[in-house]
Amino acid sequence: MQKYNISKSKNFYAIGLSYKKADAVIRGHFSLSDDSRLNLLQQAKDNQIESLVVTSTCNRTEIYGFAEHPFQLIKLLCDNTEGTVDEFQKVAYVYKNKEAISHMFRVGSGLDSQILGDFEIISQLKSSAILSKNNALLNPFLERLVNAVIQASKRIKTETEISSGATSVSFASVQYILKNIENVSTKNILLFGTGKIGRNTCENLVKHTKNEHITLINRTKDKAEKIAGKFNLIVKDYANLQEEISNSDILIVATGAHRPTIDKHIIQSEKPLLILDLSIPKNVNENVNDLDNVTLVHLDYLSQMTDETLEKRKAHIPHAEAIISQVNTEFNSWLETRKFAPTIKALKLKLADFATAELDTQRKKLSDFNEEQAALISKNIIQKITNHFAHHLKDDSNATDDSLELIKKVFQLEEQSQNV
Question: Where's the Quinate/shikimate 5-dehydrogenase/glutamyl-tRNA reductase domain (predicted)?
């Protein structure tokens, strides 16, 4: 990939790990909390990283950014998580320049999601870009790229059926309950955690189980009450967690803690209990498997559940890839124009100097010199000349480098610096 004047002596990288090679435990090691993400951004600024975007979901953690070497970005990730460089190297991927751009398109379009067509990642990418911009870490190149990925994602969602049908981790969990629990409408269901996945799961529970015995618990009670009010459900205090678990037949854990919030010691009842852990890192300790009455299912298993909906979605992959190719081509076309933007800018300034000198000469010679008209004519001529050069460079991509060097030599240009 040509430099395109993207960044002096630096390349664009995508580094990260995902469900494809990293299990839930490893992904948990590299999970970023809100605070650790902010610390990472500050460390990036301290290390003179000019632009990057950081995403961290239950299925992947990634950094897209500029660096002299990808290890600079890997170190940022490892310094702000529990993960180590050795762990990262065993399961990670590193993409550079065009491959990094293509990777972001596939991730944002749902083609790289654990459940094909799951578009939750695009909202995460948007908010991550906003966070970077608020911290002065989003240059025009990366901002334009994120916007292009968002555009491709929107088109794929509206022009294909790759996201048709209700298939997500939250829906898969409800599917699992419906398939494995008899008379589910009569069972006591406890949902612990009302973040995004918890809210989606709650909505699917209400919609598909016809159950009127759903209880919500969240560390922050008012968040649970907002969800409960929408669906007319029961809310209990966090202090009542152990008691409510004892009353439950099904426990769904969707908390965002970095340590297990549920273990075998909190389970006092001996009646059958199904636990679904929808959290990354895992929020249910594996020691609950020591209890004969407990069945533990983690989201990694739920995500592997395939059905007719997923099979139908696969038929729309070629259409989605065609959309990505088109939007990516448009982005690369914009990127190509950035290659010669500094030269065109320098040419415009040089021509303006010529015009200023000539106007000064004519102003002294002519008693009836029309300042306003002369300035307007000069401006229009300069614009036409620079447009002509720009069109030539754009249409002659194979010889762009030679043309740029010739223009610089003829006009003795000093390029205006730019951060793309």
Answer: 179-304
